[in-house]
Amino acid sequence: MSTISKYKILSQAKESFTKADYKNALEKFAEVLQNYPNSKEAYNGVILSEMAMSGEGGAEALFDYYEILKEEDEEQADIIMSEILQSMDGSLDKLSEVFAEPLRERLEFEDGILYSDFKNILDEGGDFKETFENIMFSTRVIITQKEDFIDFLERLIENDFRDMALTYLENALGVYPADKRLRKLLKKLAKGKTIED
After folding, report:
1. How far apart are CA 12 and CA 33, in angstroms?
2. Are the CB atoms for 129 and 159 separated by under 8 Å?
3. 194 secondary structure, DSSP code
């Protein structure tokens, strides 16, 4: 199997997962894992697919979270997700526990600032553009919820980080092609307008 087909099959696996075809996603992730035993992405995909197939609520949210993390730093995303899945022992009864203090501490250890903390700085009167530029050069913003991701994109567009917003949007639309809010943001970006509620 060539490297190109590895990424092609991973892409097909992720597409199947987003369409809730977990059986096909599992088969595709497993195929990559057989040929590339060290692929953390394939390994994590197999576990998430198995969890989704067994009806454990929250597997989809974890998958979404994983995709967002990968946009920030693919290598770290694989490590963080592996740790989360190992610490869960296959149990996803309370997804809120995934986003609680143990994860917060782990993410902070991974040298990043959670988006909620970033928003707190802004709420205290910080200027988005200045604060974000300072953070970009010293650390990374870690987004753990889809609502925060949408808010982040809106703020990027409003503060003229248009190229960066477009990159995030294109990646997100690759995963969620039918998401209305993402499409609305893309239209606003294309028209050069700021986002309004």
Report:
1. 14
2. yes
3. P
- b/e burial code for range 154-175 (CB count within 10 A of at least 16 → b): bbbbbbebeeebbebbeebeeb
Which pLDDT value is given to residue 57? 61
Amino acid at 47: I
CA distance 30 to 35: 9
> Which of these, 185, 175, 159, lies nearest to 10 by C-alpha position?
175
The pair of three-digit structure tokens given for residue 105, joined into one six-digit string: 């501490």
- Alpha carbons 79 and 129: distance in angstroms, whole number: 30
pTM assigned to the model:
0.45
> What tokens were used for 189?
């970006």
Rg, C-alpha atoms of the chain: 17
Tell me what the pLDDT averaged over the chain comes to: 76
